[in-house]
Design a protein that fits this description.
This protein is of the alpha/beta class. The chain is built from eight helices and eight strands, in the order βααααβαβαββαβαββ. It has an eight-stranded mixed sheet with strand order 1-7-8-6-5-2-3-4, with helices on both faces. The longest helix has 18 residues.
Length: 217
């Protein structure tokens, strides 16, 4: 069911800020400036609302922005639509929307205050996205080319959410932690899928799941 992929992750410099991100992600100065505006906005909002852990803000470029951006090369060039589940502070959806402006990006978030942040975050990135304030399990079925999620739910639960958004060629990209093998084993009880596992470029214990052909077992 699962195949390893991605090879060995290249070690990142100990200090990883805007310049290191720009080099790793190969973004223009203009795009970097938009990411800097977004990072400043997140830091400001986070003092008033807990969007991400405060301890992670000091390493925002690696822990959040680069962690999200590393999914971009896994998105098929022909993809035109992406849905992000449980978007929270906009990772990875807003980052991917900025890196792939050809995508129509939809974000599902159940908390209204977080949706307001997502709207401001999209404006800071100069992006137009579709923000849907609602529970994923109540969403209308709609096929997307790409489905993403980060720290949304255990894999077996996440796949139940994801199943609402599958088309014949949908690719699902999930950022997961060190318990990924246990989650895959649990999910395999109820789901059929083709899985490729990639090493995270931002976290030596992290993994990226690339899932295709999702069907209920």
């Amino acid at each position: 069911m699962s195949a390893p992929g991605g090879g060995n992750a290249v070690p990142l410099p100990e200090a990883f800020g805007p310049e290191e991100f720009a080099c790793a992600a190969n973004v223009s100065r203009e795009t970097l400036a938009r990411f800097e505006a977004f990072a400043a906005l997140l830091s400001d909002w986070n003092f008033r609302q807990n969007l991400v852990s405060r301890s992670s803000l000091g390493d925002i470029w690696k822990r959040h922005i680069w962690d999200s951006a590393q999914l971009a090369p896994l998105i098929p060039a022909e993809a035109r639509s992406l849905v992000d589940l449980g978007s929270g502070a906009g990772f990875p959806a807003l980052i991917l929307a900025a890196l792939r402006p050809d995508l129509k990006v939809t974000l599902y978030e159940a908390t209204a205050k977080k949706c307001r942040f997502l709207a401001e975050g999209a404006a800071a990135l100069n992006m137009t996205v579709d923000i849907r304030n609602g529970r994923i399990e109540e969403a209308a079925r709609q096929a997307f080319d790409v489905v993403t999620a980060r720290a949304c739910a255990p894999l077996d639960v996440l796949l139940a959410y994801t199943s609402r958004f599958q088309g014949s060629k949908t690719v699902n990209l999930f950022l997961k932690g060190q318990n990924v093998e246990a989650e895959l084993a649990e999910a395999a009880i109820s789901w059929k899928m083709k899985v490729q596992t990639h090493l995270s470029k931002s976290d030596p214990t992290g993994r990226i799941l690339e899932i295709r052909g999702l069907a209920h077992g």
